[in-house]
Fold these 3 entries.
Entry 1:
Amino acid sequence: MLKALLRRVPQGERDDAVREIIAGIGDNGVLDVGLSTSIYAELSDDTARQIFQDRLLDLLESGKAEPAVAVTAQENSIGHQLVQAVAQRLHGLACRLQHTPDADIVVSMAEVLPKQLSRLSTSEIDPAKDCMMKCGNLLLFLRSASLQAIEEETFDGLFGAVILLLGSSDKAVCVGAREVLVGLSGVASYMTLDRHNLVWLCLQKLIAQQSSPYHQMLGYSIWLRWVRTSDTELHHLFDATYWELLQHGLRFGDTECRKMCLAILRRSVTVAANTDASMASIFSAHDGSTGREAVIAQYERFCTVCETMLLGRYLNQILDCEQDLSFVASSASIVKAEWLYTLLASVLHPKMQDANRKFVGNWVIRCEFQPNASEDFVAFLRSAFLPWAVQGSLFTSTLRKGTSPRCGHGDRLAQYFRSLLTRNASNSVLSSQLIDLVLDVLSARRSFAYANVYLLEGLARAHDEERTLEFDIEQAEKVAALSSWTALPEVAQDYVFVRSLKLCGDNLFRTTEGLRKDAVAKAVTRWNQIQAMLDRFPNEPLPAGSIASWSVEPSNRDIRENAALDWCHELRNDMRSAATLDIDMVHTKLLEIWELEYLEYPKTLLLAFPSILLNPMLVELGTASTDLGKTVADLVSKLQALTANRVYLMWPLVCVIRLATMTVPSAAGLLNLESVISSYAESLPGPTVDLRLEDAAAKMLQSVVPALEVFSYDYYFGPRETIGAAALLDLASRLGKTEPEILVSLLNTILDRWASQSTSPSTGSSSKSTLQLQLAVLCCEQVLPHLDVEHALKRLHHILSIENLPRHRYLLGWIVARIYLKRNGLKIKLITDLTSKDHHSNPKYLAAIMKICVMLAQVEGATADFALQLATAMIPLAASSKVIIRHEAQWQFPSLMRIARSKGWQELTHNVAFTALDEHIRSLERFEQPPLERLLDRFDPVKDHTLTNLVEGSWYGLDTTQAPLCRRADFVELYRRDAQTTGDWPAPCIPLGPPVVLPEEVEAVTTMVAAETSLPDNPGSALGQIQSIESRALQTKGTAYTASADMQDGRKRAMHAQLIMVASLVDNPYNLGGLSRVSEVFGASELLVQNQRVTSNKDFQATAVSSHLHLPLVELSSPDIAPYLTSKRNEGWAIVGIEQTDRSVVLGSEQCKLPQQIVLVVGSEKEGIPALVLSECDMLVEIPQHGVTRSLNVQTAAAIVLYEYSRQHSATSTGK
């Protein structure tokens, strides 16, 4: 049509008409595309074609690219010319932007390019905004244009332009420049080594822009695409800077940057492995014997570890890659150590998840990490490892209680540096660098206080063991300076003081260079003086106070504290003679001494003050003087409040309160004794984290030299708080005769609180404590004559019906049994409760009543009639539909029959029904292997009614909520101290009793509870081993147990021992409860879980419905699953996983024949079974599905597979 129109135009006017048409292109939208392609064919001279090209170029600059794209698609020649023109125009615009002051250029790239590529080619200066917009539009066109056939001059123009534009603030321009640059990189004929070097310089400049994260990421994204298009020239760029930039991106980049760096690394290693010259840049020990494939494979392994540890979100995935991490760090690894340092430093960065950081940091310590002896290793320790390792939370979270308190992280950190120093002692350069590293951290005095203690301990151990280690002059001076460190807690200061002095003294025997420094010479002298004092002890007393204060002039605060101590001694001497004692004088001195309040309660004075304040003579004066008595009571209240954060004050305070109460009859009223006991019962103070750290530091101080053994916890803080707890319980056990009203009120307060709790109380509550029930035991033993016993029993029965925590139920049963023992006529209520159908809705309550009844049947004075009623009531309970009721009756009935035989109660022993049931229960296999809780909660109301059992009986092992507050040894020590006093005190209401002798398996549990340790690292630890015999049921639920004769034979029972369920990858308590339920229902021999304490979780209990009481739960941490499966396979077990993979067989199909002896593994809720565990599986099964969801809840999937297993092997055992 255009041709037809032009033929109507006169020949002389045709050129003008064409020019008018060309000028109008761009104004008509879609019509311009067809018009442009048509008119180009009618252009007969170069001038017209140039005009057309200029018009298209103008349109491109304004953002109207459709006509140009259409023409270039039809006519290659105009396309080539247009690209050439665009390149020239783009280069001019880019150069103008570089030379325009108001242009928004973030990164100036002109200095990267040769002058001819960045030189301004015209004097025309467009506004910067217009230039930037035009550049963006032109780049948009070039991204769709073919650049393969361009001339070198055009290539140079484009190359220079896009590099200049990469520094623009306009992100669209940057993206366009990146895409064009990547396209140019694929033009192999022009991408010479020089141009590759220019690209590399450009990338370095972009990545170096710390103030512009976008341009940094732009640099990495170009780098990634660049290495994918360049092979032959890339290996020439493999210098140190190349790899350092990658390491920097991995360490400090975000997730996207790290992903790109790993992709770049993979590609770069593939290229570098092609030649021996570049191989050295990734494998420093390359000798030509290592193949290219091995190098690539090991770096691929390293990249996989990086992806898991840096990009993964789940700790279990990181745990699973520990084996690969260990290999990369081993001597067999080809990967250069710098990459390993980069990885570890990246994971240890504060922005990473704490759990991941903790895993990597502990791995470094555990494997005594040191891949080489380079400065890079020391730099890694300084910049990445130590900033993590000295965090206070790592020390406080790994504290262990007990007679030998330790800080787990601190001990491991000290051992790691000891190992590093001794291992490298022969390398004087590295050992000196390591010593400098430790001393620099200590000298900075900015780390957590106790981190310095353990670092110094590691340095000192190495110095003690390796005599070739010695300090140079500067190092010795730094060590000596540590002795003047005063801003530390008392014991920590003494440790640093003694250790640093001893180090200076020991170093003197290896080199005398340090004596040229006055500080070192003074330190050696002071150490010699301290040794002399220690040698003279105990013949001569040691100076008072901490070791660091022995040779230091006292401060004003010390002087005031010493003055207050002198007043204490004076007041104690004055009170030896009542005749000359002036009440007003005593009152005044007490108030003067209490000025310690302004001294921030110094420890020494606090420990001395209670014995003065509650001296029996002063207490008697207080009862005679209202003012003095009020002051005494007020100060006692203040001291008790102080014990909350100063637990070392509890033992002297409670002991003197006990002494005053036993000695002075009116002291209980003066001191408001009920309030004192109630306050401690509600919240008994425990050692603070700081005190526990001091306790651990005292242990280390004692180990410096044998003469320092005297500087124990007792030296600094006095006896432990357990003496105070024992004194509190002993006081309560003696008040029945003198102050029964206090015990009645205390008991009512405790019972009211426990009875008013919700019907489903939480197992742990700040308003409930074991101590409260221990006090209730003591109260009930003394005040029954003063109580409405039936009302008290009603409340106790109610509490017993709603309480969940096993140890609390044990103590409640103790109290109830003792009351019925003393009120024999009320026992009929127990039989009534057992025969009442109303109570079947509360199985735990009926189970507790059965236990109590059997307890009472065994005591002296029990009658055959009561036992007969009990046995009659237990017969239907043994067949109850409630699992808990049925099992409790089956466990208790044989015990009742044993008692009947021992007492000669023929009414029971000659009863055919009773003996038949007894024989049947005893014939059950599991009766001979009682579950652990049956060993722990045994109680004889007479023989076990002792203080020793009350405070450290085996019942503490029923759960792990709290360690014993005190032990028998504390009462023995308390009574030893009592021998030094005079007076006729009331005897305790409960005898002390013999030491508790525990079975071996029970001892392991109660020891772990006492230490309050965290979950064991290995499944073979004490608790994990013990749980394998715990909670076995006598029978399974319902009538299916006796459905057919084949279910009764030994073959069926043996089958139960051939199925193990591994659920250690599952962390949801609700799902674990369901897995417990289905595992017990289908006869699994045990269930392996990550954390056995999950049984106390309410979600677990809701779905488990007590199944965990009849199925052993064994702890197996997720890192140990693979080794565990390997060991079970070696024993002949088949490992079967429930997972959907290419090699899975469909459950129920002919191919799915489940072995009879199997370990069944279920995966986590989100990730399934990890690769490492999958590799251990002999067989994988998947459940046939027809819906869209393609997944089942883990407990549902496990139940289906367990049923299929049971179906297959039940059929086999019956011959079907």
Note: The beta strands are 399-400, 406-407, 1059-1062, 1086-1089, 1113-1115, 1134-1138, 1145-1146, 1158-1161, 1179-1182.
Entry 2:
Amino acid sequence: MSDAKIGAPTILSLDSPTTRWTASTGGASPPAGCGFTRVQPSPVSAVVLASGRVEGVRTREACCERCWAEALCVSSLHDAGAALCLLQTSPESGAATVLAAEVDEAWTRCEPKRADGPPLSLQIDASVPGDLLTDLQRAGVIGDPLREKNWLNSSLWNHHTWTYTASISTAQLGSRLGRPGSRLLLVFDGIKMGATVELDGARLGVAADQFLRYSFDVSDLAVGAPRTHTLAVSFDPAIHVDGRFAACTGGWDWAPYSHAYLDGAHTMSKGIWKSVYLAAVPPSSAAILHAVPQIFYRGDYPTARLEEGGHAGFREGGHAGFRVAVVVHFEAATPLRGTLRLATEWGPPCALPLSLPAGASNATIEAAARASEVRLWWPNGLGGQPLYRGSPVTVNRTVGFRYVALVTGNDTDPSFVARASGREGSGSHGAPLTVIPTDELEGRWSAAAHAEMVSSAAAARFNMLRVWGGGAFLPDAFYDACDARGLLVYHDMQYAQSGHSPKATPAREAELRRAATATQEAELRHAVRRLASHPSIAVWDGCNECQVVMGTPTGVYATFVMTVVASEDASRAVWPSCPAAGWSSGVRLLDALPTGRPLVTPKSRSRIETHGPYQHGSGFAAVNGASRLALFPPNLPIKLPDAAPTGPAHPNVFASEFGAVAMSSFESMAPTLAPKHWGLHAGQRSDNCSGGFERRCEGENVMAERNYPCDNMIEVYFGRAPAGYLDATGEAVFRRQLYQCLLAQARRRPDHRVPARRTRRAAPRQRARPLQALNVKSNIEARRARNELGILVWQLNEIWPTGGWGSLEYGTPVAGQVLGGRWKPLHYLYARSVFADVVAVCGEGGACYVKNDGPRPVAGRIAVRALEFASGVVTPLAAVAVALPAGAGASARFEIDLSAFDGSTHLLIAECIDDSGAVLSTNEMLFAPPSQLQLPTAVVSAGVAEAPNADGSIDVVVSASATALYVVLTSLAQGRFSDNAFALPPGTATVRFLPTGALDRSLLVSSLRAEHLQANLMPAPAARPYERPRAHLAA
């Protein structure tokens, strides 16, 4: 889990277990209540935190508790009449503002008190890279932070200064350090939350940005005989960090909310979350801080597709080649003369004479990549992903050759291409799953989990992922996997709401404001330089949901954030934010590559990128969602929008966030809960939850903290719950509740707004409106009926077992979890039909369409059939010939006769089959919600083969005594199934279990469960009758 290191002749790793680290605290005593004093009536100038005016705080005790939870708070003022709490801080904190208040006898000053007795003293072994909470759990000091409500007991890690300490010896660096002029750099690739770094008791500096690499010159250690030194990193909760840490730390509407804050932003984990090392640089050399390849296509703007003739832009071996410019950033102790050499896998080496000044500098070395020397890198499903290594001196970077354009105009029209050449801005057409961090606890992150998560996205036919701006710049393993699997990356800078925007600190001192801006600029430059070699990264954008408007506070994303990014990488498209309306100047109109001119957003523009709608959970008091049950129509069958032209020649929209919530499987949820709490309502009294989007819950209910409830999703599709059903606990009922919740997520009502840019699939979110969303599957099917050429679902993965938005479960392989995330039923539907290049969809009244988003023409037929539940008989309904040109967006409408089709007794199946007989996709479509289906009683079982197949998979034979719908297989074994959540007529079907790593057959056999719809319907009494009865289809 290390980043690419600084290039130096000698590197000494200080990571565990090579180096022994400890974490210790000898801090203040734990909190012991509050001292209250009346404030004399008078006007007061209170020095409060920037986010320190908290409304709705009814008691002075609650106000004092908020002060305890806020790391920068020293005391608080409470106005009982107005239910107002002011969190006071020191003017020197760097986070203070002055607020005038008229104080009367209703005001109380609250001063937290410490307990009598000795301060806490504790030392444990620590892991680097890692985090404090994981270390505390490993040492047995705390339980699993994600179990029950353990993470809320935060005083141990939130109210104390923790110091990580290690002993290091320079003897291991060899004789090179003995020569005059040698340099020794102490490098921290990542430190999370504010920390002071000391060596042998001498302060080296303060780390205040999670996303920035810190290096310190410790060349004095090279003088004299080698000896052992003490390195200490002290995490002080009172260090102001200006919001430069993952915004989702300590809570989002899919992550556990902590009750600990730093300047109003939630906090949770801290630690040395990336690698630490010493880099030794002899006097005759310089350290390479970064090697940044930028790859530029040398030909004209290509408009032909793949094998098409005319323009040679993308014919293998026939394109115009590429220019490779590698910007190398150096750090030299003294002025140097020498030669920079670049060795590549595709052509002869290059050399550049250098004359470097002392200190930081950079030089650019260029190479050509001719068409005959390289193969092209393609997104998933469009071709291969050949990668090439280049090596400037001691640093290696892997690159791929491709030309990515963020297209906002009709580039199928040669006249538009001619007019747009040399012009700036964005057009009115649209451009192209969102990824969140894999864990709140960085000590649990692993390269294998990130790689497996990306593999799961590729296997479900995704070709783009968005790195969300409220998380983190992810580890190299994620981007390496995207490079290898052809997943394009739409990359937010790490800015989001809740105290994490790129504004300078609100302190009065100009020096502090300048320091904050300089730190953020360094962060941006480091991030782009670190990641620019990855061919998967297609677009940089400024932030999550910040709506960049020039002349307002959000204009900083154009004038500062993206201006810095564009200055570092001219080879990629830049975009204001996600979502955005594009630029009026500063980028090339044809492909959105920066021109070097000021980036300016338009004053008004038609909507070409959208977020939403979102189907939130409701019906139970929780930290997210409404306590009141908010039902919505199931909208089955779906109603297709009116036919309209599709394809890149027509206006379109990029839908970069929408989704629906669901819990995870019993296997995932159960280990984080006590058995007595196995139920959607935990078998406990409901909490009292108040607030807006993010609510504060008072009470003991553990499920209230697991983000969204699922009551409304279940009742919409499975009918009204009998009294006490959702309150019930136990393994059997919890499994049923979770099956219902997961299946409900796999269905959602469409939003009939315009959509997309020219890429599809991935994962993001926003605020939903009632009755606007019903299911992700039918939502996407309706979007693909329109001209939405970019569809990114919110979200891909879960950060913990909860009521969240992901199609992959929590992917850290702790108890009950599968590496990279167990596939939810929705993810299997993505793979089977939803994101197939060629898919057929039918809706209300027999209205249907077929869509080709693939790169090649399609000729074949669509076979539409009906599966009768009672008998298991499959009856052909229609065979439609299809001939579609190459996509994206090639489509045709057709109709089938459903006058004799009864959605309560039959399932509609549409298969797309090409002329060779290959099945391109199979779409199973319900025409009524599960509560209204007339299903036979079925017994379903599953058995595992005795031996694996030659490819390492193993067969699983599933048997059904009668037609069974949505058969779901689940196991504790590491891996996934080749298909799942499918309809099974009477008889057997064989699927394969695809293991991650070595197959554990015994665990697969012992933990395999087969569920199906009939066994998980709502217990009696049943719900309302089906609304549109139809005649039964004759066999």
Note: The chain has 14 helices and 49 strands.
Entry 3:
Amino acid sequence: MEDFCGTPFWDWNRTWNIPWSALNVTKLGVLTIIMLLQLGELAIAFSAENIGEAVYPVQKYTPITRIITFGLALFLILFTKIKGMRSSAVQFLFWFLITIFEIPGFRTSIRESESMEMLLFVIRMAYFPLLVGQLFLQCWADVPPQYRENVQLHEKPCPEEEASFLSRLTFFWFESLAWKGYRKPLEYDDLWDLNAEDKSKNQVPAFDKRWNKSLAKAKIVPDSKASFQAKSESIDIKSKGKKPGKPQASVLPTLCSAFGPTFLMGALLKLVHDVLVFVSPQVLNLLISFVQSGEESWKGFLYAGILFATSCVQTLFLSQYFHRMFLVGMRIRTTLVSAIYRKALLISNSARKESTVGEIVNLMSVDAQRFMDLTAYLNMIWSVKVLKLYAWEPSFADQVMKIRSKEIQVLKQAAYLNAGTSFIWTCAPFLVAVVSFASYVLAQPNNILDAQKAFVSLSLFNILRFPLSMLPMMISSVIQAGVSLKRLNKYMNADEIDPNSVSHDNHEPDPVVIENGSFSWEEDNVTLKNINLKVKEGSLVAIVGTVGSGKSSLLSAILGEMEKLTGRVNTRGSIAYVAQQAWIQNSTLRDNVLFGRPYEPAKYEKVINSCALRPDLEILPGGDRTEIGEKGINLSGVMKDGEISEIGTYKQLLEKKGEFADFLIQHINSDDQEESAIIEELEGVLGSREEIIARQRSRISESGDAGADLGLSRQLSTTSQESGEKSSTPLRKMSKVPDANAEKQPTVKDKLIEAEKAETGSVKASVYVHYLKAVGWSMTFLTMFLNLIFQGFSVGSNIWLSVWSNENTLNGTQNVDKRDLYLGVYAGLGVGQAVAALIGSFTLFYSSLNAASYLHESILNNVLRSPMSFFDTTPLGRILNRFAKDVDVVDNTLPTILRGWIHCFYGVIATLAVISYSTPEFVAVIIPTGIVYYLVQRFYVATSRQLKRLESVSRSPIYSHFGETLTGASTIRAYSMQDRFIHESESKVDHNQISYYPSIVSNRWLATLNWLVRMTSDVETNIVAVERIKEYGETPQEAEWEINERKPPKEWPQNGKEKRGRLTIIPQDPVLFSGTLRVNLDPFERYDDENIWRALELSHLKSFVKGLSAGLQHEVNEGGENLSVGQRQLVCLARALLRKTKILVLDEATAAVDLETDDLIQQTIRSEFKDCTVLTIAHRLNTIMDSTRVLVLDRGEIREFESPSNLLKNKQSIFYSMAKDAGLANINS
């Protein structure tokens, strides 16, 4: 058969998926012996019946039933072996229960051994130990299966996958990590991989499938328009003449559908636990009756054993419940983060502009940031560079603190409510007890409150205490979840970019076609209209126009980024997109160039050389392996009114004598010899220079801007660049071109952004002291004292109840005066508890909020005072993580945990004191027990604390990557790289969950121990947030912003000294904030409207702003996304004109404006800043030819520093060669 089929006829290893091992062979052997023993017992019964002895049916049916049952167990062992199941819950529970229930029979057999037949006695004596042995064998997992379908093997698989049912039940499989964490601080490499079912790739598809169904059900009808309403946090559906759209899809039903079964299983476990809670009071009732009646001693041991067993079973069920709930929470977080990320790559630009990056990132950390307003100001941190350049830190810090003050007010109100609800829920069980006892004893004189009634009732009333204490937290969580759900629904239902707005018909002859196209960025605001464009294959097309004319918008329309209102757009072939503002990832330069493509050395080197990057790579310390900071921080960094005014070939447009001809004549250097022929040709076609000027002025007059000077004598402006056709200049000769195949190996110094480091070892005492100082020593003492008083009243009420219940009675009645005294004092002690709880909770929450406010202010002030190098080398996600998650822990989580720890601490102390007083012998047990608890707590905390640190560190890259994606979404879509970036995001989430999952398991692992140990561990785990805030509160600082005794006069500087507040810079990358245009120009309202309009006029923005419906109140989107890059630079110029400082720094300030506008700006700068010191960084050399001196840099070193005229006289100078390349050398020499 093997020769015929080519494969083995029968593979026993494939049949028995789990190979034969010592464990499963032993299981089968023991089970076989047990079945043989039952056959023997059955044979003895039939034999006795044959010889006439009395044999009851139970003696025959019992072994028969057992044989059938054990036969089924044998089948299960073989079945699980075939299916590859290494451990079976059903088998473990079967053998556990049968062993427990056979204990009485085994005891009976021992007691009746003398009257029992010897063979039967031997069988029963062998039977029970074999049951125990089989139960012991069930505690271990079998060997791994040989064949696994749809299971991915991991390098470091989680031990949970290989653990037995008992190990999973008790979380014993976690012990190896706990020991490792105790011996040394855990590192990320010590952690296991996520279980396959918990990974993003397995969780996300299930959610997406259900979410898409929800969207299909709630799909908006065609021709309807969805728009955000920020104030109401809703989406308005505006129908275009048709019936209104259907309701939005909600995330909640989708989550319930995806994770409902796991949640319901957990709920069932909690139900069992809650039922078992009521068992203890009933057993306590039996135990008190036993003590009072003096029954047999074995009953007392039985009751005590039942109490212990009930507690153990409750703990197991509760631990499994919490584990499943945290697992559901982890999976929900995984799916939501992925869903939010995927949506970010699909959301339309109009919907995207409704929220800042901070607000969208906030959706990923809804548990970290409770209020949308707080995150809204975090974009100020992202713009911290411009804050520092303008010395605006103090003013913006005030703005932030105003927002923070509002949040603190809300948190204070919540604290008052928490204190009030704490008062109510603390009183509730006691009030129930007082009312119940009062009703009982006052109803009839014969109703005596004895110990049995009092303490059993009290134990039942105390069952209410925990759920009632949790109720306020649950209500708060539900409300917060409701707010988060609204935000998620708003975001997830936002308009998406229409993937069909651009077709990709490969049969279209032209690569790019637009027919009758009209496009908009926002509703009812047409940006491009009546666009008809065909780009022939192999052609080179230039799109020209003035600032804000729609050049970049046209490219966005071709890419499908704009909303297509009418017409047809088709592209054929792949697209490469170079955005106006370069989007650089925080990665190596090589990775940024490759952008996900495989590295092909020859092709890569050709690209590098073609882009003239080789000399720049030589400057970088690690070559192309140098890490680039966020947004490329360490790298240097004719259309009109949205309509195509003219289109055609060069000759056709020239003959039209239209706008292109005018545009061209403005930017041709009439004095350049090489272009004199072109000038003559233009004049021959267009007329004399005087005619051209007259025609242009006429057009300007028609457009209403008569004051503009077109600057027809504009000199040629080019970017100095290396060209293969030109002779190499002295500057280029200074740079050796290395072997193309040679690679620089990056060193540690080449890594700009180091991995975020986690602290190791115990949280230092200084961190606790830092937090307690923030709380205040007096408030700390008062809080502890009030909680001590509360516990004193609590203990006093129980002692008083004990005295009351032991009061002697007379003829079955109690003295009325004494009864009333007992009742009144008991009620008074309850009132004392309530008052102490109210004031204690209030002082705790109030002082905790003061501490949170202080810590937030300290980290904010410190971060704003950090030098620019800190922001260049620290990913913004890390800073955001500190301000979001860690501040939230200090705001909300830590106070609650501290409250629980204080209550638990005093409760344990009080319990130990009472038991020691009533039973002095117990003191001998307290000390060793306390030592054991302390050692276990230290053993556990070493692991849980480090896991918390690793989880916090691994969370930052998620936010950094998401923020990076939001800013580069257009580029990602243009290159069709969505899948790669989604995979990267999900990998980072899984990376974070790898440290989060063990942390939730560690909590369950410790759950069997005293609650105080758990709470103590929680305090140390969450104090890590204070540790992280303290770290950023102690970063290196700049010098003091102001030194009063050395403060210069108001008119300073007269001699060119430096001071940031008296210096204005127009940066290369214009930075605008979310808010009105006026706020962007004058954020602190120091200037009146007249000054602002003058600044706008001088920056050539006045006509544009007057054309806006809201004027100065026009809302600017985050980063100025609803303005062109050129307009943003002009806004920065207007900002500089308002400040009018003695020193002006221009860093490529006009790089994004057309040459005509550049001319006008240069004139403005020369007239308005004529009495100022101006430092200009420029590639357009003509803009600096009238500078006093020119400084030439190469590789970070000063090569030349002299006046332009002197440098041009020296034909060996670098500056001369650059001017020659730009066509300026002959003119100015």
Note: The radius of gyration is 40 Å.
